[in-house]
Amino acid sequence: MEHYLILSSIMFFTGIYGFITRKNMLAVLISIELILNSVEINFSVFNRYLYPEGMEGMIFSLFGIAISAAETAVAIAIIINIYRNLKDINVRRINKMKN
Question: What is the pTM of this model?
């Protein structure tokens, strides 16, 4: 169990670091996906550890994967629209859309 939790922690903090430091919207999106995947690993691990006969953690993980896929599709559509308008997907230059 410890190995999975260590892997999940590394993924989570890598995602947080990437979310804070990246300027490219696609890199920020990938960082958010890392965070969500680490949470899904935790759901599965804690389900297996606390309730070995149950499948609740696995079901929550499947719902999390479905939500992640929908979130990614919407985010990529937004990024494509921003790129068409501004010709750049740098997070720092998004303030141009306010004008």
Answer: 0.78
Spell out the domains of the chain, with CATH numbers in brackets.
Answer: 2-98 (1.10.287.3510)
Mean pLDDT in residue range 9-28? 90
CB 4 within 8 A of CB 23: no
Number of H helices, E strands in the chain: 3, 0
Residue written as tokens 């006969």? Answer: 53
Q: Are 47 and 57 in contact (CB under 8 A)?
A: yes
Residue with tokens 């890199």: 27
Residue labelled with tokens 């297996």:
48
pLDDT at 16 over 90: yes
